[in-house]
Design a protein that fits this description.
366 residues; alpha/beta; Rossmann fold; 2 domains; eight-stranded mixed sheet; 13 helices; 34% helix; globular
């Protein structure tokens, strides 16, 4: 199979869909790997590194897309890339289609077979290809939130850890999954007062055990959300509905109750966001204010730390790339229910139920 790896074009997206070790693995099995020149530079991976591993370097994205049987990326294609779509092309990347109606329609119309990293499952029901980026985003959420609480960045001027004689900053995390857990770890490390809200009693028990009383856990219901978001200095949206649109937990009326200069970081923005006033931003212009509250809503947060993110991501994505390349998508799906769960569009049909529900589409069969 011919695998193509184009350069990412999303604003300030420096990650690449493969590392030299992955190129070498594919080449060892007889596959050809085409990489657009410069695709790995932002992640500290040179063209020479990729070439030594066996990749063929091409000077245009068009040639990579045109010649490849399967495209490996990091982020969803942008409209300028839709013209490369064609029937039977395999697209293997993060897609988050529940928040992308136009992309979903184009993938179906052009009969691209799209495999989404974020809906591939594991035996325990977890999402192994989403996990590493959730870990990065959770840790970064506190980092960027703390920075934007500084007065010159629009914040109220609160130091999350405080100092003796002052109060600690209050961090409220909506969702106790991978993002929420890693956000809590960093917030506790900075000395903040941390509250995590979740709907799973088992998850809250786990968090209490892990953090040994260093955080407060509460059941996520409207009353608790209202009470704690209102008093928060930093709110982190960390809710995930696998493959689906994030539920709206903070509406505009609640946002208006927050003190001016408070900060919200909605990590769920690539699934529509769990804060009503959330809209996607970029690393060039990451924030905006609504009712005096600073909003940080960058969908590709891990792209800002590409050396860490690329290695963490491609360590886990290469497994399924090899399965698809070795066997073809149809056979790979039959052999692995977990890979089959990652297929979002196939032969013009939407095959992911949460995406179909989000866009009022019928689902095909995988």
């Amino acid at each position: 199979m011919i695998i193509g790896v184009p350069r990412e074009i999303k604003t300030r997206e420096y990650r690449i869909g493969i590392q030299p070790a992955g190129v070498a693995q594919l080449r060892a099995r007889g596959h050809q790997v085409l990489v657009e020149q410069g695709a790995g530079v932002g992640s500290g991976i040179s063209d020479d590194d990729l070439a030594r591993a066996g990749a063929t370097l091409l000077d245009s994205a068009r040639e990579v897309w045109t010649r490849a049987d399967m495209i490996m990326k990091v982020k969803e294609p942008l409209p300028s890339e839709f013209g490369y779509f064609r029937p039977g092309l395999i697209l293997y990347t993060y897609l988050h289609l529940a928040a992308e109606p136009e992309l979903t329609r184009e993938l179906m119309r052009t009969k691209v077979n799209a495999v989404a990293y974020e809906t591939i499952t594991a035996d325990d029901g977890s999402l192994p290809l989403l996990r590493p980026m959730s870990e990065v985003a959770g840790r970064m959420a506190v980092q960027v939130g703390a920075a934007h609480l500084e007065k010159e960045r629009g914040g109220k001027g609160i130091l999350l850890g405080g100092v003796p004689g002052t109060r600690r900053g209050r961090v409220v995390i909506l969702g106790g999954g991978i993002v929420g857990t890693h956000a809590a770890r960093i917030a506790v490390g900075l000395g903040a007062h941390v509250t995590v809200l979740d709907v799973s009693a088992d998850r809250m028990t786990y968090l209490e055990d892990v953090f040994k009383g260093a955080i407060e856990t509460l059941y996520s219901n409207p009353h608790n959300i209202d009470e704690h978001v209102t008093r928060a200095d930093l709110v982190i949206g960390a809710v995930l509905i696998p493959g689906g649109v994030a539920p709206k937990l903070v509406d505009e009326a609640l946002l208006q109750k927050m003190e001016k200069g408070s900060v919200v970081v909605d990590v769920a923005v690539d699934q529509g966001g769990c804060i009503t006033t959330c809209r996607p931003t970029t690393h060039d212009h990451p924030t905006y204010e609504v009712h005096g509250v600073v909003h940080y809503c960058v969908p590709n947060m891990p792209g800002a730390v590409p050396q860490t993110s690329t290695i963490a991501l491609t360590n886990v994505t290469i497994r399924y790339a090899l399965e698809i390349a070795d066997n073809g998508l149809a056979a790979a799906m039959r052999a692995s229910k977990h890979l089959a769960a990652g297929v979002n569009t196939l032969d013009g049909a939407c095959t992911c139920a949460p995406v179909a529900l989000a866009h009022n589409l019928g689902t095909g069969s995988t």
